[in-house]
Amino acid sequence: MSDLGKTAVAPSFSLRGLMTSLASPWSFVVVIPVVVALLDSNNFWPVVTFAFKAFASTAPLIAFAVFLIAYLKAAGAEAMVAEAFKGREVRMIFLAALFGGLAPFCSCEVIPFIAGLLALGAPLSAVMAFWLSSPLIDPPTLLITAGALGWEFAIGKAIAAIALGLFGGFAIRAIMQAGAFTSPLKQQSSCSSCGCGSDPFTGKAVWKFWNEQKRREAFKAELISNGLFLIKWLAFAYILEALLVTYVPAELIARLVGGEGILPIAIAALVGMPAYLNSYVAPPLLAGLMEQGMTGGAAMSFMVAGAVSSIPAMTAVWSLVRPPVFASYLCLGVTGAIASGILFQMIV
């Protein structure tokens, strides 16, 4: 009853909260068609129809991707990934590059995992191999890329992820043998707002997770959260692709990142670094760019460079290691992106 005597306080207006809500992909999904209807009503239905058909065509792959990532998280697949960081260094580099594409980590979760590996003495070369390959591909990204750009491109990106991990791992190994990076970690490296998590070398994957209530609950939570996450970003991506195809002249794209040679591929890598959104938005946007004249090599270079230099990926590296290691990460990523684009263009 004493609560009745308290004066109710009206919720205060938060400009930052309002701006965050307006910046949500859901807001853009609603606002963009409305703006098109007001400013160019003739293209309203073409834009909306294009985005809806593109989303519907990848819906089965999205559903499977959501199920797969929820299964991996509920089963505790991180324990299997940690096995890559045991044994001899060369073996670790190969396994880290391979498992980097299979790890069910979001950009936030990879920080405490990597922090634990480095703190427990895993060599920087193997960690760098994992760090470079992990942002490029994972099961959901592979399926979404295949849906938007075809399996040829998706498999090419997966191979590029592993190759970049190997390139970075062995490059760091050679640099360390020359006497550099003797103390790669920052003195006061925090584990981020996600928490430090448990020792990555402990635990065991439980593939029949449905026998444990806690894992069943984790599966349900991951299924819902990842489903909403992918639907949100892909709806936004397909709206952007529809705008791109409708309003950006094909000649402009072809002039900038079309044609043969190394220059368009290098330009795509440099443009991809600041312009990249995330691995779920990029494939539909690149599909639109390729329809407008972007070459496959330039698209691959854009995607690889953008994934390595995306804000979450760079934040993960910067939060844990010293600036020279961070600079090496970026240089290896951009160099590998250009090389991936050139090789993909030559082969495909």
Automatic annotation (TrEMBL):
Record InterPro entries: DUF318, UPF0718
Membrane topology annotation: Multi-pass membrane protein
Keywords assigned: Cell membrane, Membrane, Transmembrane, Transmembrane helix
Transmembrane segments: 21-39, 51-72, 93-122, 223-240, 252-277, 298-320, 326-347
Gene Ontology terms: cellular component: plasma membrane
Domain of life: Bacteria
Subcellular location: Cell membrane
Main subcellular location: membrane
Family assignment from sequence similarity: Belongs to the UPF0718 family.
Name by which UniProt lists this protein: Permease
Organism: Cohaesibacter gelatinilyticus
